[in-house]
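2024-03-11 09:14:02 DEBUG pipeline.ingest accepted 1 chain
2024-03-11 09:14:02 DEBUG pipeline.ingest length=382
2024-03-11 09:14:03 DEBUG pipeline.predict start
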Amino acid sequence: MPTLSVDPSGTYLSLETATGTQRFHAIWLRDNAQDAETRAPGNGQRLIALRDIPADTRIATAQINPDGVVQVRFAPEDKTVDYDLAWLEAHSYDRAAPSTQGWLAQEIEPWDAGLMGNVPCGDFAALAEGGQALRDWLGQIVRYGFAKLKNAPVEPGGLFKVVDLFGFVRETNYGRHFEVRTEVNPTNLAFTGLGLQAHTDNPYRDPVPTLQVLYCLESSAAGGENMVVDGFAAALRLREEDPEGFALLATHCAKFEYAGEAGVCLTSRRPMIELAPDGELIGIRFNNRSCATITDVPFDKMEAYYAAYRRLGEIIDDTAMEVTFRLEPGEAFVVDNTRVLHARKGYSGEGTRWLQGCYADKDGLRSAYHAMMRDARVEAAE
C-alpha cells in the first residue's frame, strides 16, 4: 500500500511504493499540475508561466485517497491538485545521475552484423493502411535507427509516399530529392560504381537532416549492396577499447564543410560523437569526404585525437559491425542520419542502378510513432 509524507519544510513530499521511495518538490508538482486552470484540456499546454506560481510555494497537506489519487494542497495559493499515482511513478526524477558517458535511452538498441538475419522491414501496402503494421515499423526505426520497405510502387517520386507515412520532406540545396544513378561501365566518371565508406550524410549542415530515404527504381548491376553500420554501437565499442579516445571525440569539435556548387558554402562545428549534458549518446557525425581542417583540439591532444578518429573509422569499417542488403526496384530504406551510417558496395559486370533519395526529419517520425503508441494504450485501457 503506497504511503506518503511531507517534509516539515513543505518543500517536498516522499512517496513510498513497491518500487521504492520517490521524492517530489513542491514547485515541480505545482508546475506539473494537470488541472484546467494550469493546462489546456484539449492540448495539454500550460496556461500559466512559472512567474505566475509563487516562488515560496510549499506543500501544506498531502494524502493518498482511496481511489489511489494523490491529493496535494499548496500554500500560499491554497490550491488543491490531484495527481495520478501511476503518472507520478512514471515521471519520477529522484534517481542517481548517470555516471557513464555514452549511455543510451531505453528505447534504443545497439546492433552489429548479428542483425543481418533479422533486418527490420515492412510491406508498403500494409504500412499505407496504418494501424499496427505502421506502428511496429516506425518503432523499429526508433529502436534500430533504420528499416527497409518492400513492394512499393516502381515509379519516380515514389519515395515521397514513404515520407508521407510519417512526416514531411526536408528540402535542401539539392532540392526535394536527389538522383543516385550509377553505370558499371560509365561514359562519365560521375556515374561511378566505386564503393563508398560508411558515413552520415550532410554533416556540414546545422542541423543535419535527421532522416534519409533511399528508394530503388533500377538495379540490374551485380554488386552495389547497401550497407548500414550502427554508429552508436561503434562509438560504444571505441569507449570500451579507449575511454580517453572516446572522450576526445566527444568533447572536441570537428569541422565539416561543403562548397561544391556556386553560391553554397555549408559549414558546421560539432563533435563526431555527440553527448547530451548528462552523458546520453545522442548523435554521430562521420564523413571523411566532408571533414574540414580540424583546429579545435589543443596541440597536446591532437595526436591522440587523430588516433581515436582513426580507430573509430576502423571499427566502422569492420565487417563484424555491418549489415548488408540489396535493394530491388520498389524497395527502400529509411535511416536515422544522426545515428546510423550508410554505404554501398562496389559494382562489377554490367548493368545500371538508379535510386532516388530525399531527406526528412525524425521528429515527425517519432511524433507519429508515439501518438500511435499513446492511442494503443488508451484503447487497451478502455
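2024-03-11 09:14:41 DEBUG pipeline.report The chain is about 25% helix and 30% strand.
2024-03-11 09:14:41 DEBUG pipeline.predict end
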